[in-house]
């Protein structure tokens, strides 16, 4: 039996209005936006759609339904996370920025052993293949983040909002 389990159940600890989970299998079965999840004693915030603001609108990705719970795939065995997102319009000029924001949020939030793939939902964007290629090319992501204007936009989108 794994540490953090009781009779095969994952340990779940209430912390305010958030839950913290103590194992990968709890992560796999419970990855939901809006939850704070602890992996390997490392607090990890998976509330990405609530925390990421749209670059053009005063709404979060959650409010715009750009990311949904069922668009998250976590493969613990191969240490991979796949997020599929859907821009609000087929010709969204900010699709690459939105994907970059999601990628940066995950890179900052989850253990480095996970490979993060970000993709547009099939058929959801006019330049889907090009955007997917940019978002999953390590060198292009690094180059984008070295651009001070792009980095400023990403940081603004990731900045916490206090209500």
What report would you give on this structure?
The chain has 163 residues and is of the alpha+beta class. Helices cover 33% and strands 22% of the residues. It has one domain (5-158): GMP Synthetase, Chain A, domain 3 (2-Layer Sandwich). The strands form four sheets. It has a three-stranded mixed beta sheet. Strand 5 and strand 6 form a beta hairpin. The longest helix has 15 residues, at 95-109. The N and C termini lie far apart (42 Å).
Helicity level, as a percent range? 25-40%
**What Rg do the Cα atoms give?**
16 Å
Secondary structure class reads alpha+beta
**Number of domains as seen in the coordinates:** 1
Q: CATH topology, anyone?
A: GMP Synthetase, Chain A, domain 3
The N- to C-terminal Cα distance equals 42 Å
- Overall CATH class: Alpha Beta
User: Which whole number gives the mean pLDDT?
Assistant: 76
| Percentage of residues in DSSP E strands | 15-25%
Order of helices and strands: EEEEHEEHEEHEHHH
Shape: globular
Number of helices: 6
In total, the number of strands is 9
Name the CATH superfamily classification: Fe-S cluster assembly (FSCA)
Which CATH-level-2 architecture? 2-Layer Sandwich
Spans of at least 5 consecutive residues with low confidence: 1-46
Strand order of the largest sheet: 7-8-9
InterPro entries: FSCA_dom_sf, MIP18, MIP18-like
Protein name: MIP18 family-like domain-containing protein
Family: Belongs to the MIP18 family.
GO cellular component, one term: iron-sulfur cluster assembly complex
């Amino acid at each position: 039996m794994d540490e953090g389990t009781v009779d095969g159940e994952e340990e779940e600890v209430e912390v305010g209005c958030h839950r913290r989970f103590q194992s990968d299998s709890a992560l796999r079965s419970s990855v939901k936006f809006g939850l704070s999840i602890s992996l390997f004693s490392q607090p990890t915030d998976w509330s990405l759609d609530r925390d990421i603001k749209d670059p053009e609108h005063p709404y979060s990705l959650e409010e715009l339904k750009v990311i949904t719970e069922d668009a998250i795939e976590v493969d613990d065995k191969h240490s991979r996370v796949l997020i599929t997102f859907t821009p609000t319009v087929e010709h969204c000029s900010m699709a690459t920025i939105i994907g970059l924001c999601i990628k940066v949020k995950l890179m900052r939030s989850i253990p480095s052993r996970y490979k993060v793939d970000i993709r547009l939902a099939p058929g959801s964007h006019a330049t889907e293949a090009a955007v997917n290629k940019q978002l999953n090319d390590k060198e292009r992501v690094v180059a984008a983040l070295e651009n001070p204007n792009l980095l400023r936009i990403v940081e603004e989108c990731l900045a916490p909002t206090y209500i």
